[in-house]
Amino acid sequence: MSPWVTLSVAVLFVSFGSILVRLAAAPALAVSFYRLAFASLLLLPFAARETRRSWPALDGRRQILLLVSGVALAVHFATWIASLSYTTVAASVLLVNTAPLFAIVLSSLFLRERPSVTIQVATPVAFAGAALIAVGEPGGSSSSLLGNGLALVGAVALAAYQVIGRGLRHALPLNAYVLGVWATSAVVLGALTLSFGVPFGGYSARTWLLFLALAVVPTIGGHGLANKSLRSLPAPTVGLFLLGEPVIASILAWLLFQETPGPRTLAGGVVVLGALSFVLARRG
Questions:
Q1: Per the structure, how many domains does the chain have?
Q2: How many CB atoms are closer than 10 A to CB 132?
Q3: How far is 228 from 101, CA to CA, in rounded Å?
Q4: Which residues 6+ apart lie within 8 Å of 40 measured at CB?
Q5: What is the value of pTM for the model shown?
Q6: How confident is the model over 40-94, as pLDDT tens digits?
Q7: pLDDT in tens, 100-156
């Protein structure tokens, strides 16, 4: 399958993440923990053989990178999912997808990748659109600014996760790598859940089903396929492509929650979409 097709399907699946989080109506840390824990358990039967063979062969440096990648993913989910309690789906999802701006810097520093002219032009444009959203709507509440800030922290963590994954692309089979970072993330999130006194149980059957749906659709389907595309596409390109997520997620939020983006969010979204269209037309 073409990596571009793989990435397109990943965007579709990932776009349901924010909607499922909202529907779960549970504490952010609990949602994050069960999303990664269930995803790890579901992947385990398919990754066990590759994992047993490849993990012991990793040198110390790569083992540390694998752990750091998992921690970065945990920070991403914890902060981004928390942001959805304070700001709109459109603002949160668009801001977290400013990760390409940070991925370019990290890729240049650690992977010595030089982004194409297309990426260099499109990324600042996309970030400018996101910045318009981050300042909030006129007369907006302070809680929305908190949510926007949490989403930006999630963007930095997502960029680190993507770049580290790119750096490990030749060291591990895909399933073994994904299981490693997801399981590490689940352990970190479980520790945070315990530390902050967030309950692990007592949720309704509907919420448990939504936890499972989060593991299957955006995590295994969405992030799993995005990881696959990172094997053949640069991290900044993958990150920019994933900017299509806010469009689908915002439409779903409007249909399900009657959540209408404000003028600044819409204007910023147009700018981001323009940058994405430029990248797609030029194919990075």
A1: 1
A2: 20
A3: 21
A4: 179, 182, 183, 186
A5: 0.87
A6: 999 999 988 888 888 787 777 788 888 999 999 999 999 999 999 999 998 898 8
A7: 778 877 887 777 777 778 777 887 887 788 788 887 777 667 788 899 999 999 999
Q: What are phi and psi of 27, to 5 degrees?
A: -55, 145
- Let me know if 258 is exposed, middle or buried by CB neighbors in 10 A (0-12, 13-18, 19+): exposed
Q: Which amino acid is at 25?
A: A
For 5, the 3-state DSSP assignment is helix
Residues in the chain: 284
Distance of CA 72 to the CA centre of its chain: 10
How many Cβ atoms sit within 10 Å of the Cβ of residue 137?
A: 16
Cα Rg of the chain (Å, integer): 18
- Reduced to 3 states (helix: H, G, I; strand: E, B; else coil), residue 114 is coil
The residue type found at 63 is Q
Residue corresponding to tokens 């069960």: 34
Residue position matching structure tokens 């955006």: 218
Q: Which domain holds residue 254?
A: 3-282
Name the one residue in this structure whose structure tokens are 């995803």: 39
**Phi first, then psi: what are they for 97, rounded to 5°?**
-90, 15
Q: Which residue has the tokens 């749906």?
A: 213
Task: Give the Cα separation of 31 and 35 in Å (integer).
Answer: 6
Residues in contact with 114: Cβ distance below 8 Å, sequence separation at least 6, in sequence order: 108
* CA separation, residue 264 to residues 93, 134, 151, 172, 173 (Å): 15, 9, 17, 43, 43
How far apart are alpha carbons 58 and 173 in whole angstroms? 12
